[in-house]
Please model this.
Amino acid sequence: MKKFLPILLSVVFAIIIVAQFSSCEKYVLPSLSLSQDTLTFSPEAQDSELIIETNVIWSADNTSNWIILNPSEGELSDTITISVTKNDTGDKRSYKISFNTETIKKSIVVIQNTPEL
Model:
């Protein structure tokens, strides 16, 4: 009996150690890429698609009042619709949109040409 108890405790301890390591989450090396780095639009209201490829949660930083992103955040890869309103300002306009993960930042530039007067 005296020999059995240390063996039993050793087995229980080994099971606890194995269970600890098998339940650990694996770290995923984040990635982020965009299908384009520039989108150019005519002066009219238009839509275009941008493909975001990632293996983590992402969000877009867009504070412009003439560009609409759908969706503007997500998890994993997605196709984003980028819409611009009609440019009746008389000026060419551009805006940089940042796409962010926890550790990576990529940008695209959205350009909308000048309306013809």
